[in-house]
Amino acid sequence: MADITSRGTVTIATESCKGCDLCIPACPPKVLSMSEDVNAMGFRYPKLRPGCTGCGACALVCPDFCFEVFQYEAPVTHGAETR
Amino acid sequence: MSTDTFLPTDVPPTRPSHKVEQLKPDLLLHTNHHLCPGCGEPLVLRELLEVVTELGAAERTIGVAGIGCYTAFSSAIDLDLIQALHGRAPSVATGAKRMLPDRLVFTLQGDGDMVNEGLQEVIHTAARGESITCVLLNNGVFGETGGHMTSTTVIGQRTKNTLEGRDGSYHGYPILIGDLLAQLEGTVYAARGSVHNAAAVASTKRMLRKAFESQLRGQGFSLVEVLTMCPTGWFIPTADGPGYLDDVLGTVHITGELKADGKLVTTAELRARSQERARRQSAPGQEAERV
Amino acid sequence: MQRLIEGSEAIADAAVAAGCRFFAGYPMTPFTELLEHLARKLPEVGGTCINAESELEAVGMAWGAAATGARSATGSTGQGLALMQESFSEMTLAGLPLVIFNMSRGQADYFQSTRGGGHGDYRHIVLAPMDVPEATELTQLAFHLADRWRNPVLVYGDYLLAHTYESVEIEPIDYGTLPAKDWAVDGSAGGSGKSRLVSSLGMSKDPKRSVDPESLWKDVAKRHREIEATEVRVECGFTEDAELVVVAFGTAAKFVRYVVRQMREQGVPVGYVRPISLWPFPYSALAEAAERATRVAVFEINAGQMIDDVRLSVLGRAPVVAIGGISTDASGFGVGRLLDTEIIRERIESALKGQEVPV
After folding, report:
1. Contact list, A69 vs chain B (CB under 8 Å)
2. Are C173 and C138 in contact (CB under 8 A)?
3. Is the confidence at residue B2, as pLDDT, over 50?
4. What are B227-256's pLDDT values in tens digits?
5. Parallel, antiparallel, or unpaired for β C98-104 and C152-158?
């Protein structure tokens, strides 16, 4: 895990998600994937793996306003669980 | 590292960081909406509302909503709004603008609303050079009624009343509304964007900004047509929406600026340019030789 | 200052005096001159008059102007208004003030005016002036009532009203103060969390209500019941001892009133009822007049439209007969041979004798 660096991160309002999948291919570093479990509406939702660049593409293509996107002041090297 | 390692995403990061995209635009009262999964219309709404905020125009903007799926947002947009009848938004916007000429006035319409029911209205509004901006959400179907053919449905496209695909000899041919309006003298800016990927969304936002800026300068009519996904009305999985948009609607309603800075570019010219780009990409060697 | 001017110009002046600042219309005889006069007069007072590309666009523009709080109007003949009906009913639901002028061809738009061709539960106040001086007053009243009730008001004129020259003096009439238009959309409330929405769909920015057409439609129905109780306007003459009561509206009523007065001078026991507001219709005034009469006659220049409301008023108290009928000139503009005091007198005399009048 030490090899992976995140320059940014996102929050995901999973309960608003309708499971459309649009964010998955839209993510340039491919760090989003759909969950196995579902939210209260019965939809799968995206989950974040290390490697986010904070580019904001997910927010731009999300029809349900689920993403808030941040860029770190300094890149985070994973291994530590902190955000 | 294991690809199964997921990061917590329920709260903002505690490390020093800055926000680059908000959950929702400031001018959206809430994010609850009943539009279908994979719909492209909320993407346009996000950019439109952000542009209004960035221009500092929230306290002098009047929106006029047509009738379509996007009408649901009338109760969520934190701008002064007038709900119009199907097709009539450009006329309603005209009346409002003439009474309050220093306001930013825009319409939000679908292809059924603007190009079917209200074609005459939008053409005359452009011809009069009304200083308003018409925003067209073009998905090539009547989404709200369940996916029926509109005037922008492309040849071969399956809809609920063209089950074997639109046949020009039987159903007629699609209207390129952007071209139609761009050629009118009263039109100062016309562009066709898309929301099938993040780059297209960002480009659409620039078009919206240019349109609004031209209006605020009082230059005349502006149109921003945006191709939007409607997986429900297209009868395809949500994840296939962007690809379908690009391959089906996007090859007829080519994206780009159709009129800007007094220069007119037809959709045919945009198509030739995009084909030329595709040729260069597929055969870079030949391109180098020619240069 | 008294001026001898054409009815259309007088109505245009009255509209301007009432504070009308937006008008959109599409030319059509005999409405055209009203559009011409407003095209000239509105810019002089900082207003706007648009020669719209269709009636649909005209009413849409008037809708947008009204939504900003401006006094706004449109008009046409009944034919052109037929095209606008969807917007009229929807503007009623949206609670928008609008003044509509029908410079009609004849009197055959009674149903359209009072029942409408639009959709849903809606009503318009309908004012029917009989001559040019009254038209100038009712035009100003129309703008006041539209604002007071947040409801479209229709001024129902005709070819003769639009084209007759009469001497009038037009000054702004004060009908009283009105509540501020805090519902109007001026673009200033964006981002405040209290931005406004002018909608006919029962949509609201209050998340608790969000979409609630039932409440909206009930509110509109309540408003219309209040108008029915408040805004009836009618002129009655000699009804206290009339054996025959003649009912007529608009231009036809002016002819009927002249004939009835003449007959009264000669001792004939006739009277007249002239509904000035066609909606709300003066049901009670007519019922009262019919109480003492042996017969009620309706003179209208059409195949029989207002007679339905007369029958609903009279409710069997007296027989109701039609003494008007279809009558027009070759152009179809509605100045036919029936609009003649001699013919009207003959028909009233026939009705008095209980004879059938061919209509």
Report:
1. 19-21
2. no
3. no
4. 999 999 999 999 999 999 999 999 999 999
5. parallel
CA C139 to chain centre: 9
Nearest to C298 by CA among C359, C233, C242: C359
Least confident range from B118-127, B146-155, B200-209, B281-290: namely B281-290
Question: CB–CB of C78/C106 below 8 Å?
Answer: no
Which domains, ranges and CATH numbers included, belong to chain C?
Answer: 3-168 (3.40.50.970), 235-352 (3.40.50.920)
Q: Do C195 and B79 touch (CB under 8 A)?
A: yes
Taking the CA of residue C83 and the nearest CA in chain B, the distance in Å comes to 13
What is the C-alpha separation between A69 and B8, in angstroms, rounded?
13
Q: pLDDT (tens digit, 9 = 90+) per residue, B57-69?
A: 999 999 999 999 9
CB-count exposure of residue C181 (10 Å: 0-12, 13-18, 19+): middle
- Residue to substitute from B82, B123, B130, interface C, most C β-carbons within 10 A: B82
Rounded CA gap, C113 and C74, in Å?
14
Q: Decide if A5 touches B, using CB distance below 8 A.
A: no
Interface subset of C 173-212, CB within 8 angstroms of B: 185-193, 195-201, 203-205, 207, 210-211
Report how far residue B224's alpha carbon sits from residue C300's, in angstroms, rounded to the nearest whole number: 53
Contact B198 A57 (CB under 8 A): yes
Distance from CA of C124 to the nearest CA of B (A): 19
Q: Model pTM?
A: 0.95
Structure-block tokens of residue C190 = 């964006």
Q: Which of B81, B114, B130 to mutate to test the interface with C (most CBs of C within 10 A)?
A: B81
Q: Quick one: pLDDT at residue B284?
A: 63
A5-73, what's its fold? Alpha-Beta Plaits (3.30.70)
How many residue pairs from chains B and C have C-beta atoms closer than 8 A?
166
Residue B141 CA to residue B241 CA, distance in Å, equals: 13
Subunits next to B (3 or more Cβ pairs <8 Å) are A, C
pLDDT at C333 (0 to 100):
86
Q: CB count, 10 Å around CB of A73?
A: 11
Stretch B259-277: mean pLDDT, rounded?
Answer: 95
Please report the ipTM that was assigned to this predicted complex: 0.96
Handedness of CA B104, B108, B112, B117 (dihedral sign): negative
Task: Measure the CA–CA gap between B112 and B148, rounded to whole angstroms.
Answer: 9
Q: Quick check: B135 and B107 in contact, CB under 8 A? A: yes
Name the nearest CA neighbour of B74 among A64, C92, C196: C196
B62, C60: Cβ pair inside 8 Å? no
For residue B81, list chain C residues with Cβ-Cβ distance below 8 A: 185, 195-199
Q: Give the whole-angstrom CA distance, residue B136 versus residue B151.
A: 13
Pairing state of beta strands C98-104 and A67-77? unpaired
B146 and B117 Cβ atoms separated by less than 8 Å? no
Q: What is the pLDDT of residue C45?
A: 98
Can you read off the two tokens belonging to residue C348? 């009233």
CATH of domain B41-266: 3.40.50.970
A21 in contact with chain B, both atoms CB, cutoff 8 A: yes
- Sorted by where each begins, the domain ranges of chain B are 41-266
Q: Which among A4, A11, A67 is the nearest to B1, CB-wise?
A: A4
